[in-house]
Design brief:
single chain; alpha+beta; D-amino Acid Aminotransferase, Chain A, domain 1; D-amino Acid Aminotransferase, Chain A, domain 2; 2 domains; nine-stranded mixed sheet; 15 strands; 29% helix; binds 4'-deoxy-4'-aminopyridoxal-5'-phosphate
Length: 288
């Protein structure tokens, strides 16, 4: 079945889902987006995703052409039309059609589209065995230049770090901020465990305020674990007991090697595995 795409105000066939070469989303990466999961036909953490989308849009002075309620309806229509039970939604708002100049205010009609498709997760073996990462030399965007809290259509900073990872034959890279503290991975948030305490870099260190991150923190707290937000260095990553990433697509995935150094005992740690399981149950509504 060919995908049906929500484009501005209605569903169209995939082949008809086209936007102008003059859209500033394409010309300048001027726009915002969300990646959202669907579990059992239910859109996961939708309120939090919509809040982040609207805040990012507000920060770049992009008026979203639909209300949160209208977007909610459009998401549900798109999920249903594509018969998605477990899947992934990409919700994108672009500045719209303008001229070749930068001026965003002459782009009259912001564009909005929704793609709902099946999900490409990392292979199951990677969750069992754990993933390898490197430290990227590409520094995360300075928060005073472009706040990493805005999930903008310009991902070049992350893509440069991703290229470093792929050149080193690993799937992910950890990015550091201009002060040398851990910011995040190219598309996921970072956590470590040391002496039974869960640590995460604060959002101000230069990361997206991950929705999976917030859920993981809540679940860790429920399990009686202490969660501390504090600046982390590369040294902290090298000597931690456990290391994992969180993100919409990846959920929770253990890291077992960084820059060729073994993390912990080389397997996803017990707290990582427990939180991965709790997250799985929470997302799929199978909480005990
Ligand atoms: N950081 C970046 C740069 C991201 O793109 C993402 C989303 N893929 C995340 C962190 C994780 O955020 P979330 O849990 O909301 O998906």
């Amino acid at each position: 079945m060919a995908l049906k795409i929500w484009l501005n105000d209605r569903l169209v066939e995939k082949a008809e889902a086209k936007i102008s070469v003059f859209d500033h989303g394409l010309l300048y990466g001027d726009g915002v987006f969300e990646g959202i999961r669907v579990y059992g036909g239910r859109v996961f953490e939708l309120k939090a995703h919509l809040r982040r989308l609207f805040e990012g849009a507000r920060a770049i002075r992009l008026p979203i052409p639909m209300t949160k309620e209208e977007i909610t309806d459009a998401l549900q229509v798109t999920v249903a039309a594509n018969e998605i039970d477990d899947g992934y939604i990409r919700l994108v708002v672009t500045r719209g059609v303008g001229t070749l100049g930068l001026n965003p205010f002459i782009c009259r009609d912001p564009g909005l589209f929704i793609i709902a498709d099946s999900i490409q997760l990392y292979p199951e073996e990677l969750y069992e065995a754990g993933m390898k990462v490197i430290s990227a030399t590409t520094v995360r965007n300075h928060p005073l230049a472009l706040s990493p809290q805005i999930k903008s259509l310009n991902y070049l900073n992350n893509i440069l770090a991703k290229i470093e990872a792929l050149d080193s034959d690993v799937p992910e890279a950890v990015m550091f901020n201009h002060e040398g503290y851990v910011a995040e991975a190219t598309g996921d948030n970072v956590f470590i465990v040391k002496n039974g305490i869960v640590h995460a870099p604060p959002v101000e260190a230069g990361s997206l305020e991950g929705i999976t991150r917030a859920v993981v923190m809540k679940l860790a707290d429920r399990e009686g674990l202490t969660v501390v937000e504090k600046n982390l260095t590369r040294h902290d990553l090298y000597v931690c007991d456990e290391f994992f990433l969180s993100g919409t697509a990846a959920e929770v995935i253990g890291i077992v090697e960084i820059d060729g150094r073994t993390v912990g005992d080389g397997k996803p740690g017990p707290i990582t595995c427990m939180l991965r399981e709790r997250f799985y149950e929470y997302a799929r509504g199978k909480e005990k």
